[in-house]
Amino acid sequence: MQKIIVIAGPTAVGKTDLSLQLAKKFDGEIISGDSMQIYRHLDIGTAKATKAEQDQVPHHLIDLLEPTENFSVAQFVRKAQENIHEIASRGKIPIIVGGTGFYLQALLGDRPLAPVDDVQIEPDFITAWEQQVAQFGENPLREALAKVDLVSAERILPGQIRRMIRALAISQTKGQPFSSLQPQPKRQYDAYIIGLDTDRQVLYDRINQRVDHMLTLGLMDEVAMVSELPDAATAKKAIGYKELFPVLDQSETLEQGVAELKQASRRYAKRQLTWFRNQFNDINWYDLVKNPAQLDEIETDIQNFMA
After folding, report:
1. 218 has binding-site annotation
2. Known binder of ligand: residue 234?
3. What are the structural domains of the chain?
4. Is 211 part of any known ligand binding site?
5. Is 238 assigned a ligand-binding role in the annotation?
6. Minimal CA–CA distance to 241: which of 261, 217, 212?
7. How many other CB atoms are found less than 10 A from the CB of residue 10?
8. Which of 7, 17, 55, 229 measures 20 to 30 Å from 31, CA to CA?
9. pLDDT in tens, 185-194
10. Residue 67 marked as a ligand binder
11. Residue 12, annotated as binding a ligand
12. Hey, which bits of the chain come out as E strands?
């Protein structure tokens, strides 16, 4: 089974820095496991590796699509599998880096792809239901889903609107419950999973500082570009952009928008950590913010894993 390294963790915890260090140390190449870094032009708000960083080590699954294009988890898995095979064939180590846990889980095989993962959902269907939710709340959507897939309606957490819409669309398209189409999990790779974390307040301070730095880099220009995308575009829902839309139309001050962005980013980091802890029982946790010397420990652990 192909050995790979996975670096997971919340936003602003230091995944990019570690990935560069490990890629240089172990002659690896980096595959982005972030659902938004696949899009061109979204550089600052997605905390994409800079051109200088990408020049140091080959990067994959970055800047492949325009922000108006859709990108499913099934497409991610296929492309990542191709990259892993190509990297390994060159005698290099594939290093997957990202905070989109759902993508990482699907790639590893812990959440295997169902025969419905390539179903294309009409943007109008998504937009119509999102408008319904905005006006009436999510109960009508959940009730509609329960009529065709009670298991998914009970399983999907509050606030996961896109997941409910997808489950509803697939259930209607296939004529059977989305939940009944899920295959059993089976690991596809021998993965050493590194989890990065640190004290909560320290992480929150880093997130706040990152947002401030993004603004100095020109984040508002990206926000203006994203605001012009069609409402159904996935990029338009991304944290880092939507919180600042009210600043553009002057319904909020920049200070208010930045405060909302920081809060949304902190909440997202908390959800990321909860997800990783609940979904990966073989993750190896390290705190490089509090203890940078743990880098030596990580390198030793990887050497033992690769042996």
Report:
1. no
2. no
3. 3-113+184-306 (3.40.50.300), 123-181 (1.10.20.140)
4. no
5. no
6. 261
7. 27
8. 229
9. 678 899 999 9
10. no
11. yes
12. 3-8, 28-32, 59-60, 93-98, 190-196, 284-286
